[in-house]
Amino acid sequence: MLFIQVENALNLKTRTIDLSFLLLPLNRFLYQVESFLVNIYLIPHLSENSPHKMVFTLHYFPAKTITAITTNTQFPENPKALILKKCKTVRDLKQIHAHLIKTRLLFNPTTTENLLESAAIIIPTTSMDYALSIFRKIEEPDPSAYNIMIRAFTLKQSPQEAMNLFKNMYEISVQPDHFTFSGTIKACSRLRALKEGEEIHAQILKSGFEFNELVCNTLIHMYANCGNIKSARKVFDGMSRRDVFTWNSMFSGYAKSEYWMEILNLFNEMRELGVGFDEVTLISVLTACGRLGNIELGEWIWEYVESNRLKGSVNLVTSVVDMYAKCGYVVKARRLFDQMDHRDVVAWSAMISGYSQARQCKEALEVFHDMQNANVEPNEVTMVSVLSCCAVLGAVETGKWVHLYVKKKKMELTVTLGTALIDFYAKSGLIDDAIEVFKQMPLKNVFTWTVLIQGLAYNGKGKRALEFYRLMRKKNIEPNEVTFIAVLSACSHVGMVDEGREFFVSMSRDFGIEPRRDHYGCMVDILGRAGLIEEACQFIKNMPIQPNAVIWRTLLAACRVHKNVEVAEQSLKNLVLLEPLHSGDYTLLSNIYASVGRSEDALKVRNEMREKGIKKIPGCSLIELDGEIYEFFAEENLHSHSKLIYKATENMIKRIKSAGYIPNTADARLDAEEDDREASVAHHSEKLAIAFCLIKTSAGTTIRISKNLRVCADCHNATKIISKVYNREIIVRDRNRFHHFKEGFCSCNDYW
Ligand code: ZN
Ligand code: ZN
Which listed ligand is nearest to 634 at the C-alpha? Predict the structure, then answer.
């Protein structure tokens, strides 16, 4: 290895450079040295075998003097080959640069451009400063030199610089060519500078490049990226010749703007015209099929892929998996996924998000564990799907692991990922962690704010939710319709009736958002919770849109708390018309009768239910222990832990009874004997789950349960007492909201 230290008048600082890659013998190199070099110290490598154990100091000696030590080795004749093949690092490049200056080869424009291209584009680690220093030394740069620089600036995230160079070119009257135009348009696209893009488009028309395919393709891309899909299509339609790239630009433009139907129409057009398509085309079309649920076309493409032996393409097969999953054919997606020889992170993510969208969250997490076993690193898309499943299942440990992983891998806390984390923490009842993530996020959008406000509201922190809403408005973030659902439910949770009314009016008055059913439902909840049952009933009757079952059910639930039998009967009548087979509604009315002592009516409702063949949905509670999900069903004997669990439940009930718990059997089967009724409520799924957690976790550990139905009055009461007797925080997420049980109280203030 040979090191040479160069100090010269060429603006190169003193540096040690490794020249051995040039494979040039020292003497040949010296021959090339021009007399303007001030000093060269040659420091040969000090190995035993080295023949060059010496140090040279050269002072202004003429080139001729060195001829004496010249050997016959040639410097490569073709500098381009040398530059492109030998240069792997900036260091290599700078050495060649120095060499080219010495040999005056730099005055050859082609060589200079080769060097410039290497400095600006080919070697990924160079800074643009170095490329610029080369560029500035070119006396009269031609369009190709400009093109290299424009391309490089766009590639290296400085599209504004690219546009400045383009302007500069015009000022000094260098004629742009089609590469210049396409390069600059690309820069506009990066900057989403539609106005500038349109100006350059006008110049393109003037310069007669409007039929150039490359220029047109980038124009289509630019317009699509700036959201002006109509102009993109105009360019597309105006083209006399269109290759597959052109078509693909149009497809990706439509995909970016989520114009899925247009993609399918364009694909049909393509097939009618007999234009050949490629893998990229098919991937766009498959995405559209997934979004539109167009399984027919999706399957046609899959057949095409199979019969044309394209199954080797991971991207294409992954898109088919994704298409199946999005169309709801998760089993087909899984079968195909299992057949894939090579599965990259995109394939795994497609499968996980497929399960997640199909609400098969357990399966999604299983695939995620397989993915980890396969040593495939998850990306943002994976994480977002996994988090949403953790939120649904209440899988706190897995979700927390994801957060740790994100931190450890220093993954960027993007708006999507951060919002998913907040949603997960909020839905897991860890509202402080949700706020923490919110604070750490560098960028937030309206969804981020909304998810936090909603999370606070559902966790019984209505006041804080409204504080965040005010802060959001202060930051001039426009609320959307979901924000108002969050804000209204916050009002409902803290019983702020007047504020709720005001927000309800404000949403259409100040923000032009017409209330949807969900907003009306929130208002009914606000009024009902405050005991304004009659007003709530009237409010429903005056609604300009047809109330749905959820709204009547909200009222029915309010009737249960405020024991209003009359309105409850009305509500059920309306409910039966809308959803005749919903068992929970009958149960609620029967409970209301029972609570006011009308047990005969209660029994009648139960009988009616049985006659109509309405089956109760079995209550199911989920818990996560050591990353595993456990499911508990009411009165279930098949559970693998059953003996242990029933024993634990019995002990737990005994202990809370001595602390004053009296079983409330209103929610049990009314036709059963009193003893059976008591046993039946004792075996509600959340009681089994809590008892199991009490014996399986160490003292003081928070217990988290998610339940598919509403918590019944007896379980609610029992859980309050358990939280006190066992000194445990218990967080139950039921169908409607969170219950944070602590020291004998619940965050819902006994309204749910
Ligand atoms: Zn219960
Ligand atoms: Zn509660």
Answer: 1
